[in-house]
Specification:
It is built from 13 helices and 55 strands. It is mainly β. The protein has a 22-stranded antiparallel β-barrel. The chain has a five-stranded mixed sheet with strand order 10-15-16-13-14. A hairpin with a 2-residue loop joins β8 (about 110) and β9. Its main location: membrane.
């Protein structure tokens, strides 16, 4: 019996091999060429055998080669063009195939969650990025490229090289990390800073539950699908590079006074305060006089103290400044501190790629070097990347491949950030302009003299960071395999992730030039490493039968992430040479740490692993190519939670291709029209640490070691973190309705969506009373919010004349955010960020209002007379019954008058109101592309409307009393209240800080932040000479380009695009505050693209 079964099995296998062999021998190599409507080659067009899995792509010349049977039919398709089916008819070549402009982009192939679909079959909200337009921007990464490219996506960046911009899909979904999930070649990640944009083939943005919920607990912030390039056709070598210069903003950017004007302002403030003007530098005469020297204080030329022979200073001192005698001449014309630290800077990129392949194997290898020197001295981003992608068809039913990228990044400012009060930028509008950069011996000058404030030399701050270094290495990618088990059943497995490491070191020099000096020196070094992996397994089934088309997908996914970090700081170095400084060469105190908790948004903390196990399924059904149904479900289990570890996230979506109905057939101007809707649940776990559930203890010599008996030291433990075992998923219930339409035979395309999101169980770190101890507070589910808005994208294609074509895409995005619940110790709000306002916070997150709104007193004007003040005080006394009551603290003529918002006849803490919203009412983008023969022109405009900015720079510059001795603006001197200028912009200038001027948050600091910016403009020419073809050059294009060419805004600050400092854990609940922005520079470039 066994032998008989064995014989049957062998016979079956031999028959199967014979059939396979027959199929192979029946196939032959078919060639062809694909051109577009302009008769130019189409690179990357998909060529497949109808009814089979065999496929390839065209090369840069439009050529392809594919194995197919003599009676096969080839399907040729490309994004933006109508697909064609060509019969082989027993020939070896199908000749030249001309693709026509696609009547509807709804036939585009879109990569979605773990699969791909035609856009016409989508029932979720998916935006497709025009990567050709996006890549024209001279930026380092995809994050910055996405600004304004699709509706529903907001990107806020800065001019700082390597700074990760804020990327948000449909507003705010949580109080913490709002960054979307990126899925690169099927591997989830939140870091795409080191992915070379030239390697990206396509990008899709999944915005609603119908499209995103299959990613479950990581989908609440939206998902961005990135697919990197694959090789096609014969071997091609391509080069794409540019060089250029970057220019910082010119002129007097903060409108700072000259030294003489500074003296005049001080005299005015003293006189307004009823004081006799006197100053260690300007003297005490009837008018201020600029001295020849500011060290010695106010000295004239010839003063014995200015004798260079008496000068003594050791810039590398260690702890003691005894005997120092610094001599500093006054800069009588004024130091432009902004342009002392900002200057023109180069930017360059070189990209080299080798591609090739056919239906059996394909490959891509690329090398990229990007170097952007910041316009702020000693800031830069240098990045080197290598990518290798390949696919192999082992048999007709088995395919394997890999996508792998390696990067090295040098970016010393990436971790520390610079948008803070004590940074060089923050000091550039505070340092007195009478102070020069250097003293008479070339050492740094500063505020060490009297009456020069306590700011620090911005040049010294930045130059002392010259040897601070940061280096990061990362290997990211995946390997995969696919097998066709049956004709319609395919299994796929993918194992991917990243391995990374990095180090940073910095040296803090002693200072000698300031009124408040750092008198010690120290060296700090940190190192980190980690890895994460994702293993995804799916089984996909596709059945087409008559009017029915059914796709089923099931899968599992496992994820693990872990990291380690260590570092230390040593004090007391005798030698400051960077070649001889290390943690072991200092003589002073040494402090080390390992696995330090690095913030609520960290993937892990204290070395804890973070794991996720998932099961998911998907159904897509189409009836008669017009009735669409989609359903997904995912179940996630996370190590971040204990009691509520598992979460289930379902979604359902429907669509109706109304244009396919018989009653629409005669509506000629409607080419294609689909109505769709979705509802589902997405989750979020980003805002809980891996150890959020657990109470942690640790040891520390200063707090847990106790001496018993005067000699023996006993080790103890102390509380490090409170645990929250009841933490659970944030849940986002999402409703979306929209339509996709193409009109006038493809000349006009419109996509529009309305969405509403209810987000519950938001995780947030509460503030515990001090009696609880000093442990870190975990995240609790304490709040809810809702979002709603509209996304619109409109694309037009116009053939203006022969060889002249215009393509235009406009995007429009609006969203409204409202906090619906906060459970913070019974208070329906929490405040943040007091800055310099004596403990009064300027941001309030409150129920019934949008996130991160500005809060304070509303200025209604100025007190114009003492009689006005007396009348208001009498009103307050009558209302309160207190004969000593005053209407407003510190009320005086020329000072601000605040609004009595509660009609109490008295200004109290309850009189504060919401002053502004940093979130825009809407944002918009416009991409224009114009081609004429071999010339091409493109322009990209981006704008936001209706947002407010808290201009905190004005606290320093517009009030003499804020910072006596520091820099002030021309507003303070020329547009402040005086008896002859009662309708001024700023209040009366005085030698003090008052409740009724600038010591409390008020609406003076809130400005309209709306702007329109020309982000990019490019003019190119493609050389089309026969001699180039003979030389083996299939394409040569040169272009000139300008970025950030102009900005239209009413905002008085240096740049209306205000991002947050790197690593700010309150980036969502406390943003839109200008403390000295790193402005986006204007860029001018020249580039070349060559294909061999």
């Amino acid at each position: 019996m066994f032998i008989k079964h064995k014989e049957r099995a062998i016979s079956f296998i031999l028959a199967l091999l014979l059939l396979l062999g027959t199929n192979v021998f029946a196939q032959k190599s078919i060639t062809g060429r694909v051109l577009g409507p302009d008769r130019k080659p189409v690179q990357g067009a998909s060529v497949s055998v109808k009814g089979a899995t065999t496929g390839t792509q065209t090369d840069a010349d439009g050529n392809f080669r594919i194995n197919a049977a003599s009676d096969a039919t080839l399907v040729i398709s490309f994004v933006g063009f109508a697909s064609q089916e060509i019969a082989v008819n027993n020939s070896q070549s199908v000749g030249t195939i001309s693709l026509s402009q696609l009547a509807t982009s709804l036939n585009e192939i879109v990569v979605t969650g773990y699969s791909s679909q035609k856009k016409k079959d989508l029932t979720g909200s998916v935006a497709i990025v025009n990567m050709e337009a996006a890549k024209k921007q001279p930026v380092a990464d995809l994050n910055n490229m996405l600004q304004g490219q699709v509706s529903g996506l907001t990107v806020v960046g800065t001019g700082q090289p390597g700074q990760t911009p804020q990327v948000r899909i449909r507003g705010f979904n949580t109080f913490g990390n709002n960054a979307p999930l990126f899925v690169v070649d099927g591997v989830p990640t939140q870091n795409i800073n080191d992915i070379n944009p030239n390697d990206i083939a396509s990008t899709q943005v999944l915005k609603d539950a119908g499209a995103s919920s299959i990613y479950g607990s990581r989908a609440s912030n939206g998902v961005i699908i990135v697919t990197t390039r694959k090789g096609t056709g014969k071997v091609k070598v391509s080069y794409d590079g540019y060089v250029g210069t970057q220019k910082p903003k010119g002129g007097n950017v903060w409108d700072i006074l000259s030294p003489q004007e500074m003296g005049n302002l001080k005299w005015l403030a003293y006189k307004n305060s009823g004081k006799a003007p006197t100053d260690a530098q300007f003297g005490s005469g009837t008018t201020p006089v600029i001295p020849d020297y500011i060290l010695p204080n106010g000295a004239k030329a010839g003063d014995p103290g200015t004798d260079p022979s008496t000068y003594y200073l050791d810039p590398n001192y260690n702890g003691s400044m005894d005997g120092f005698h610094q001599i500093v001449q006054a800069n009588k014309t004024g130091t432009d501190w902004y342009h002392q630290i900002f200057r023109n800077a180069p930017i360059t990129q070189h990209n080299l790629a080798v591609t090739g392949g056919n239906d059996q194997a394909a490959y891509l290898f690329s090398v990229n070097y990007f170097n952007q020197q910041g316009t702020l001295i000693n800031t830069y981003l240098r990045r080197f990347t290598i990518r290798a992608n390949s696919t192999y068809k082992i048999t007709n039913f088995l395919r394997v491949g890999e996508n792998m990228g390696y990067s090295v990044i040098s970016n010393p400012q990436a971790a520390s950030g610079i948008l803070v009060e004590g940074s060089a930028i923050g000091m550039a509008f505070r340092e007195n302009p009478m102070i020069p950069v250097y003293d008479i011996k070339g050492n740094y000058a500063g505020s060490a003299g009297k009456d020069l404030g306590n700011a620090k030399n911005p040049v010294a701050i930045q130059q002392r960071t010259a040897n601070n270094k940061g280096l990061a290495n990362r290997l990211f990618g995946n390997i995969f395999g696919e097998v066709d088990i049956l004709k319609n059943l395919t299994a796929r497995t993918s194992f991917g992730g990243e391995v990374y490491s990095g180090s940073n070191h910095s040296f803090a020099f002693p200072e000698y030039e300031n009124s408040e000096n750092l008198t010690t020196n120290s060296y700090t070094e940190t190192a980190y490493s980690g890895y994460n992996w994702t293993w995804t397994n799916t089984l996909a089934y596709h059945l087409t039968a008559g009017d029915h088309d059914l796709k089923l997908l099931g899968g599992t996914e496992a994820y693990l992430a872990t990291n380690r970090n260590l570092g230390g700081t040593t004090l007391g170095y005798l030698n400051f040479d960077p070649n001889y400084t290390s943690l072991s060469t200092g003589l002073g105190t040494q402090t080390n740490y390992s696995n330090q908790n690095n913030g609520i948004n960290s993937t892990t903390a204290f070395g804890a692993d973070n794991t996720l196990v998932s099961y998911f399924g998907r159904l897509d059904y189409t009836f008669k190519d017009k009735y669409l149904l989609g359903a997904t479900v995912r179940r996630d289990g996370s190590s971040k939670f204990t009691t509520n570890r598992w979460g289930t996230f379902p979604a359902v979506s429907i669509g109706w291709r109304i244009s396919q109905e018989n009653f629409m057939k005669n509506v000629g101007w409607i080419t294609d029209l689909k109505i769709r809707g979705s509802y589902g649940t997405m989750g979020n776990q980003f805002n809980a640490l891996g150890t959020n559930s657990y109470t942690l203890y640790g040891t520390n010599k200063q707090t847990t070691y106790y001496p018993y008996g005067g000699s023996a030291i006993v080790q103890g433990v102390s509380l490090q973190q409170f645990g929250n075992p009841n933490g659970k998923w944030e849940k986002d219930k999402n409703l979306n309705v929209g339509f996709d339409g193409t009109f006038f035979k493809g000349a006009l395309e419109v996509t529009a969506d309305y969405y509403h999101k209810d987000i519950k169980d938001l995780l947030y770190q509460l503030t515990f009373p001090g009696t609880y101890g000093a442990g870190t507070v975990p995240a609790f589910n304490v709040a809810s919010m809702k979002n709603s808005g509209v996304d619109v994208a409109v694309t037009g294609h116009i053939n203006i004349a022969k060889d002249l074509k215009l393509d235009a895409t406009g995007t429009f995005t609006t969203f409204s955010n409202t906090i619906t619940q906060i459970d913070a110790s019974g208070t329906p709000y929490f405040d943040q960020d007091s800055r310099r306002f004596n403990g009064s916070n300027i941001v309030r997150n409150a129920v019934g209002h949008s996130i991160s709104q500005f809060y304070g007193y509303k200025v209604t004007g100025f007190w114009q007379s003492q009689a006005e003040i007396d009348a208001a005080n009498a009103e307050a006394q009558k209302a309160t019954g207190n004969p000593n009551a005053v209407y407003q603290t510190d009320a005086a003529v020329g000072r601000f008058r605040y609004a009595d918002s509660k009609n109490q006849h008295q200004i109290t803490n309850d009189s504060k109101v919401f002053l502004g919203n940093p979130s825009p009412d809407f944002s918009y983008g416009l991409n224009l592309g114009l081609t004429y023969k071999d010339f091409d022109f493109s322009m990209f405009l981006y704008g936001v409307q209706g947002n407010d900015i808290w201009n905190n720079v004005k606290w320093w510059t517009d009030f003499y009393g804020s910072f006596p001795g520091g820099a002030n603006s021309k507003t303070a001197l020329y547009n402040s209240w005086t008896p002859t200028n009662t309708h001024a912009k700023a209040p009366i200038q005085e030698a003090g800080s008052y409740f009724s001027t600038q010591s409390v948050p008020n609406s003076y600091f809130v400005e309209n932040g709306s702007y329109l910016r020309c982000k990019n403009m490019q003019l190119g020419y493609s050389f089309n000479f026969a001699s180039l073809k003979k030389a083996g050059i299939s394409r040569l294009r040169a272009y000139v380009q300008a970025a950030n060419l102009f900005t239209i805004t009413k905002y008085s600050g240096i740049d209306p695009e205000i991002s947050t400092n790197s690593g700010n854990v309150n980036a969502t609940t406390d943003f839109g505050i200008d403390e000295g922005a790193y402005a986006n520079p204007r860029q001018y470039l020249f580039g070349i693209q060559v294909v061999f």
